[in-house]
Amino acid sequence: MKKKTILTVLSFILVVVASIAGTMAYLTDSESVANTFTVGQVDIVLDETDVDENGKEIVGSDRVKENEYHLIPGQTYTKDPTITVQPNSEESYIRMIMTVHNASAVQTIIDNHHLVDFSELIGGWNKETWVYEGFSEDTTANTISFEFRYKVPVGAENTAEELPALFETLIVPSGVNGTELKNLYDPNGDANYEDGFKMVIVGHAIQEAGFADADAAWAAFDEQMGVTEP
C-alpha cells in the first residue's frame, strides 16, 4: 500500500510538471546536481635491490622482498629498503619499522668493538629524511625494533612516487671474529638458524586526513593493527 501511494504521488507531480511546461512554452529551465563518490586508497610497496650473497647487486634483476647474505668481517653489503607510494594514493604518513633478531648477539658485537649503537651497522641513513622516533625491546623474542618516520606526508596522483631508501648498506665491523659471527647465526649451538640474526623491515602507511598530527595517526594505526610501538 505504501509503495502504491508513492507511485501515485509521483504520477501526480509528473502530470503537474507537464501541464506547467505546456503553459510556459519556451520559458523553461532545467538543472540537476549529480554527486559522484570515489573511494580513497593508501597503497605502498616496500622492496630492495636484488643482491647475491656477497651483497653485490644482480644487474638486470627486479627488486625483491628478501635477500640472503654471507657475512664476512670488514665487508659492506648493499641493502636499501625503499618504499614506493602507488598511483592514486591519498596523502599519508609513512614509516618503517626495522626489527633486529638475535639482538643480544648484535649488542655484544657493538659492546666488544666500542660502537656507539646499532646505527653504526648501517650506512647511508639520511636522518633528515627518515626521522628516528625510538625503539622497543622484546627480551623474550630477543629482538629490538626501531621506528623511522618519513619527514612529511606523501601522496601520489597519476604516477608512483619512490621515496629515498631508509639506508643503503649493511656493515660488518672489521674486528668481528668467528665466534661472534657464529653466535649471530647459531646462538644456541643447535644449528637452528631460525634463532639467528635477521633484519626484518616493514613499511606502514596511514591517511593524513582526519588526524591532528602524525602522533595521533600512528596511535590510531597501532590500535587498529595491534602493533606494539617502538
Word description of this protein:
Residues 1-25 have low confidence and may be disordered. 23% of the residues lie in helices and 23% in strands. β6 and β7 form a beta hairpin. It has helices at 2-23, 103-112, 178-185, 214-225; strands spanning 44-47, 76-78, 82-85, 92-101, 122-123, 130-138, 143-150, 161-162, 169-171, 199-207. The termini are far apart. The chain has four helices and ten strands. The strands form three sheets. A four-stranded antiparallel β-sheet has the order 6-7-4-10. The protein has a three-stranded antiparallel β-sheet with strand order 1-3-8, with no helix packed on it. It is α+β, with helices and mostly antiparallel strands and 230 residues long. It is elongated.
Q: What can be said about the biggest beta sheet?
A: 4 strands, antiparallel
Q: Work out the helicity level.
A: 10-25%
Number of β-strand runs: 10
How many H/I helical runs?
4
Radius of gyration, whole Å: 29 Å
**Percent range for β-strand residues:** 15-25%
Mean pLDDT, all residues = 85
Strand order of the largest sheet: 6-7-4-10
Question: Per the principal axes of the C-alpha atoms, what is the gross shape?
Answer: elongated
Regions with little confidence, pLDDT below 50 for 5+ residues: 1-25
Sequence of secondary-structure elements: HEEEEHEEEEEHEH
Oligomer: single chain
| SS-based class | alpha+beta
Taking the alpha carbons of the first and last residues, their distance comes to 62 Å
